[in-house]
Specification:
With 160 residues, this protein is an alpha/beta fold. It is built from six helices and seven strands. The radius of gyration is 16 Å and the shape is globular.
Length: 160
């Protein structure tokens, strides 16, 4: 029981520390080979940046991104928001990213974290993983996806 309580408290304090953290100083390439400095290129004042970490082999990740796509036009009308889909596919699976993107036609900017530098810097263990940034501060994180989770995310974004 004591171990369980210690684990829960550690997770809680870990998330609250992460919520005060800034995005790490990492440069990633986009799917069209343009370089983006994660900390400096996405810093418009009061704009909400939603980083969704995904992989081609992760069905819940693809389901989440598809669900967000269905609502994205409405979300961007209501909020100053940008979704950035960060693929963590490594050198073995990254060749699947472009064909998948061609079929999905997602309206998001897609960045490739092939060395998993950003994933490691944020301490992400599993995907799907969502990091919400506003005014260069991480204000919300969420791990996992289940059907309807995009509505919960949108409600959280409206509170920001």
């Amino acid at each position: 029981m004591r171990l369980l309580l210690t684990t829960i408290l550690s997770c809680f304090f870990g998330l609250s520390i992460l919520a005060q953290k800034q995005m790490p100083n990492v440069i990633l390439k986009s799917d069209d080979n343009k370089s983006y400095h994660v900390k400096n290129d996405f810093k418009e004042q009061d704009k909400i940046y939603v980083y969704t970490f995904w992989a081609t082999w992760c069905a819940p990740c693809l389901n989440e991104l598809d669900a967000i796509k269905e609502n994205y036009a409405e979300w961007t009308k209501e909020l100053n928001i940008e979704v950035i889909a960060v693929s963590i596919d490594d050198t073995r699976t990254q060749k699947r990213v472009k064909p998948l993107l061609n079929g999905k036609n997602w309206p998001y900017k897609v960045l490739l974290d092939t060395n998993q530098d950003l994933k490691r810097a944020l301490g992400i263990a599993n995907v799907p993983y969502t990091v919400v940034v506003k005014n260069q501060k991480i204000v919300y994180v969420h791990n996992g996806y289940s059907q309807g989770g995009e509505k919960e995310l949108f409600n959280k974004l409206k509170q920001l």
